[in-house]
Specification:
3 domains; two-stranded antiparallel ribbon; Diaminopimelate Epimerase, Chain A, domain 1; 355 residues; 5-stranded mixed beta sheet; alpha+beta
């Protein structure tokens, strides 16, 4: 039976609040941008009194907000900073309902610009995808509130086990609630614990698919560090996540994972560009022709060797081989013939469908 305590304790340890502070330059840039006023309520700030205001992050470090990006920091009076807390600004529904629409749009645009340089932006797009396509893909994700979840896969009592969990500090409650519902209904997850700490068990064959669905929902998926977990085996999901993109400008660069966050293999997304579709079709046709030619060559060489052997045995130039050995050889020749015939049939079916 799966013992939950080590996993729940690991989530509690990993989910400790993260502290982030703006540096002096970021504070000055924020004040200049907002005219020495609170970015949320627009009230003037009492700058000579440092305790009356602060620089707060639009996407907090707890949710992967980039501390080194100036767009992520804005000046705020103490009351607004306290009301926002550690929430993602997109989740602060009370402020969005009362603030001026242009101010809401401005801060959400700053948050968007900051998140472009946050980590955990894993996409199924290849590194050769155009920047515009990558930005569009990320933009649809950025509109959703961020949340943080932990994943673990390994063996428990000789049985493969895949787990996903989070705490009440994971982010927007609506987002985590929707994630919980989707994991149960769509992915067939079993709820092992629910409350301050949630833990779900996922079917092994649907684990990576479920993790990618969480990422597309703007979830930050992190590996859960469980004491006594042991070494990572080559088939482990963490070893599938070998690369990450740090920002869209350097999307063509892939940074090897060396002990940091991990990501699963993304589902392959094929281009719909007509030229790309045409080139892909040509490449596939060339590969099929090569396989067909190779299969025919292997079969004809094998049947030629067999015919030569039979002829030499008939003429008394070569001693017959043992019956079992000859049968194995004949079976090999027949398998080559079957493989060639199958490729011929497949090619004929493709030719017929394209006419």
């Amino acid at each position: 039976m799966l013992e939950l305590a080590p996993f729940l304790d690991a989530i509690a340890r990993a989910d400790a609040p993260l502290e982030g502070k703006a540096n002096g330059w970021q504070r000055k840039a924020g004040l200049a941008e907002f005219g020495n006023a609170c970015a949320f309520c627009s009230d003037p700030l009492d700058l000579p009194s440092p305790k009356s205001w602060t620089a707060t992050s639009l996407a907090p470090a707890q949710l992967g907000g980039p501390a080194g990006v100036v767009e992520n920091w804005v000046p705020a009076c103490r009351s607004c900073a306290a009301a926002k807390g550690l929430r993602d600004v997109v989740s602060w529904s009370k402020w969005k309902a009362s603030a001026a629409p242009d101010r809401v749009a401005l801060l959400l645009a700053r948050r968007h610009a900051a998140l472009l340089y946050a980590e955990n932006h894993f996409t199924p797009l290849s590194r050769h995808s155009k920047r515009e396509r990558l930005l569009a893909h990320l933009g649809s994700r950025f509109d959703k509130p961020r949340f943080r979840v932990y994943a673990w896969a390994g063996e428990v009592d000789g049985e493969r086990c895949c787990l996903v969990g989070w705490s009440t500090r994971a982010g927007d409650p609506t987002a985590t609630g929707e994630a919980l519902l989707a994991l149960q209904i769509r992915d067939g997850a079993e709820v092992l614990a629910e409350g301050r700490l949630s833990l779900l068990r996922l079917p092994t064959d649907g684990f990576l698919k479920a993790l990618w669905a969480l990422i597309e929902g703007h979830g930050i998926v992190l590996p859960l560090d469980v004491p006594g977990d042991g070494p990572v085996d080559p088939g482990d999901w963490r070893e599938c996540w070998r690369h990450r993109v740090m920002d869209p400008v350097s999307n063509h660069k892939r940074v090897p994972m060396t002990g940091g966050q991990a990501l699963p293999h993304a589902p392959r997304v094929l281009s719909t560009n007509p030229d790309s579709v045409r080139r892909l079709a040509q490449l596939q046709a060339a590969k099929r022709a090569d396989r067909l030619e190779e299969a025919e060559l292997l079969y004809r060489e094998a049947i030629a060797r067999k015919s030569k052997y039979v002829e030499r045995v008939k003429r008394g130039l070569e001693a017959p081989m043992p019956r079992d050995e000859y049968r194995a050889w004949a079976d090999e020749v027949r398998s080559l013939q079957t493989a060639w015939a199958r490729l011929v049939s497949e090619q004929r079916a493709i030719d017929a469908s394209t006419r």
